[in-house]
């Protein structure tokens, strides 16, 4: 007579227990360009680029910033700042809506590599354009970029071509954006076609809508 085998599923055996999603992360130190010390919900973790811990993946290190990814969403952390709060995961936002201001210009605020700045939409600009004064305020190491000549209203001027880790407006983030840093002062960072080409643009009266394509 054969006995029927009884199978019991024990969640403690062979099954991973889901950890709660982290709520805040701080960049507390950097080990060259390959690893960083992160404080994840108060717990220190040393991660190499590409590694993960507690749902946080270290994507890249550049200067004094680290790019992390949590639940498919990326965020830039600056060394020595307060812990960054992580928004809960939600539907991916792929649209920017801007309203024309005085003079018919479309301006908005946003982030470059996690630092706040103001933007002016400029469909006539080949690349995102940043003044040297603003670039220095944002902590961009533009002098390490490629020297180029660019055409301005005052004629051809020397500039630096660099790659921005990210530009974020509202909930929409675009990564690896080409920008040029030019001498002088501008009231806004110009959002040129190195950023705008990622979007499908449409204008209805005083409203400009940008739908992210890729």
UniProtKB/TrEMBL annotation:
Gene3D superfamilies: Acid Proteases. It comes from the Bacteria. Keywords: Signal. Residues 1-20 form the signal peptide. This is Retroviral-like aspartic protease family protein. The lineage of its organism: Bacteria, Pseudomonadati, Pseudomonadota, Betaproteobacteria, Burkholderiales.
């Amino acid at each position: 007579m054969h006995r029927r085998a009884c199978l019991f599923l024990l969640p403690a055996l062979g099954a991973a227990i889901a950890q709660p999603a982290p709520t805040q992360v701080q960049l507390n130190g950097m080990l060259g360009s390959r690893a960083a010390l992160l404080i994840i919900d108060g717990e220190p973790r040393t991660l190499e680029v590409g590694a993960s811990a507690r749902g946080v993946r270290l994507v890249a290190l550049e200067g004094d910033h680290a790019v992390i990814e949590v639940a498919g969403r990326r965020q830039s952390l600056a060394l020595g700042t307060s812990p960054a709060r992580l928004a809960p995961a939600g539907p991916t936002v792929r649209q920017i809506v801007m309203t024309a201001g005085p003079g018919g210009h479309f301006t908005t605020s946003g982030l470059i590599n996690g630092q706040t700045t103001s933007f002016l939409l400029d469909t006539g600009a080949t690349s995102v354009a940043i003044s040297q004064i603003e670039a220095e305020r944002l902590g961009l190491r533009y002098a390490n970029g490629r020297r180029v000549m660019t055409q301005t209203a005052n004629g051809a001027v020397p500039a630096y071509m660099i790659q921005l880790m990210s530009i974020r407006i509202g909930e929409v983030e675009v990564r690896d954006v080409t920008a040029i840093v030019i001498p002088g002062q501008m009231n806004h960072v110009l959002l040129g076609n190195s950023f705008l080409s990622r979007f499908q643009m449409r204008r209805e009266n005083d409203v400009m809508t940008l739908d992210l394509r890729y």
